């Protein structure tokens, strides 16, 4: 069985996911833009994998946007995005919180009609391996 481990930025929360992911979406909806403060959310989805909190489970808080299916779990200490089981039968794991290698390439970009205009040119601008001088 595949096992993935992850943690929040401050290390207060640690978790493991046992099982495989069904899909990996880059979501450009306005909810995900607000939620991440970025152009899109990168989330892995599974209907069969299981989530276990290894440390700091009491530091996990979750928010469900009223009138929607949009939800987010996060560390109460540092605010880092964490896995969510808020939708029955579905595990959603923010790809960036995994410490193990993400096993697959993204399946698709979704909700691209709401994509941020400034993000569409991201591939054509300068890039640096670290902070530029």
UniProtKB/TrEMBL annotation:
User: Which keywords are on file for this protein?
Assistant: Lyase, Metal-binding, Zinc
Signal peptide span per the entry?
none
Q: Known InterPro entries for this protein? A: CENP-V/GFA, Mss4-like_sf
Coiled-coil annotation: which residues? none
Q: Does the keyword Cell cycle apply?
A: no
**Sequence ranges assigned to domain CENP-V/GFA in this UniProt record:** 4-119
Q: Name one Pfam family in it.
A: GFA
- Identify the PROSITE patterns for this entry: CENP_V_GFA
PANTHER family under this entry? CENP-V_GFA DOMAIN-CONTAINING PROTEIN-RELATED, GFA DOMAIN-CONTAINING PROTEIN
Similarity comment: family membership: Belongs to the Gfa family.
Q: What is this protein called?
A: GFA family protein
């Amino acid at each position: 069985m595949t096992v993935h481990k992850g943690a929040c930025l401050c290390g207060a929360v640690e978790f493991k996911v046992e099982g495989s992911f069904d899909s990996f979406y880059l979501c450009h909806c306005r909810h995900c833009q607000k939620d991440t403060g970025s152009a899109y959310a990168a989330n892995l989805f599974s209907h069969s994998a299981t989530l276990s909190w290894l440390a700091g489970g009491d530091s996990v808080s979750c928010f469900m946007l009223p009138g929607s299916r949009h939800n987010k779990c996060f560390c109460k200490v540092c605010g880092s995005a964490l896995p969510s089981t808020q939708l029955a039968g579905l595990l959603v794991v923010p790809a960036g919180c995994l410490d193990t290698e993400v096993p697959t390439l993204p399946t698709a970009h979704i909700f691209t009609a709401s994509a941020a205009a400034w993000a569409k040119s991201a591939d054509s601008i300068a890039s640096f391996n670290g902070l530029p001088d």
